[in-house]
Amino acid sequence: MPEEILSQNEIDALLSAITSGEMDAEELKKEEQEQKVRVYDFKRALRFSKDQIRSISRIHENYARLLTTFFSAQLRTYVNITVASVDQIPYEEFIRSIPKMTILNVYSVEPLEGRVLMEVNPNIAYSMMDRILGGKGHSDKQANNLTEIETLIMSQLFEKSVTNLQEAWGTIVDINPILEEFEVNPQFLQMVSPNETVVVVSLNTQIGDVSGMINICIPHIVLEPIIPKLSVHYWMETGTKERDPETYEQISRHIKQVQVEAKVILGQSKISVNELLNLKRNDIISLNQSIDEALQFVINNEPKMLVQAGQMKNRIAVQVLEEIKGGVFK
């Protein structure tokens, strides 16, 4: 059982109680030796450790940043999405906590089993739709009377956003999210049994002047195959893992084949537009480079070496003199 650290005031109060006889030291020892019993609610089983919950939170913090960028570009307005909380609760409790009429997107996440549910508060969903249709982002429309065109527009928006979910989870597992269902009534949606433990990630969402919540419900069956990866040890191991020699060699080989622009700067000069317009044949432009000075060898517009001009096998060539690193000659 974890030790409790008492403050100085609590220690003083305890010593005072023992000294005055209000508390018996022998009874305290006896209570300490007795077995402690803790109430456990099987309907609210905690199947994920705090470490794993923190990993899920870290993944969705990245997901929130990706969604912020995506929706800002799609809606052409200010969007801010942040993680508010990450909890594990029974599926039945999650369904009861969301509005009776809301926007529900169900995603399959192959190769993982099960499906992930994204619940979007109606205020947020209708604000998105109003922006897409050219409005200012305000709408008082009800979820139960969406037209087919409005349903199609909204489902297409969330279907495009699946790449962000794929990218956010890419550090743990490669998934292929697909929007399978678009629903407005949670009572018609039964993904898992009512007592199944689910992780609910709540995202604070603000679109212009409208704010609301986006809730992501991830059943235990989805996360079960990757639970060992949801730990600090896995993140540390993957960060310090030795590189695969074969992969490293393949990457190096591909990098060596990349084409880069290489040029030698003979010199530079500044002239006025009037001088440029009046240039004639046999006119001379004076450069700022002396014939005795080394020339700059530039790769993709960045100086890399000092060279001198010459000739090799009847072709113009340069000879490398020294390397330039960070603007300092080596």
Automatic annotation (TrEMBL):
It is found in: Bacterial flagellum basal body; Cell membrane. It is a peripheral membrane protein. One of its GO terms (cellular component) is bacterial-type flagellum basal body. It comes from the Bacteria. NCBIfam families: fliM_switch (TIGR01397). The keyword Cell membrane applies. This is Flagellar motor switch protein FliM. Pfam families: FliM, FliMN_C. SUPFAM superfamilies: CheC-like, Surface presentation of antigens (SPOA). GO terms for biological process: bacterial-type flagellum-dependent swarming motility; positive chemotaxis. Residues 254-324 form the Flagellar motor switch protein FliN-like C-terminal domain.
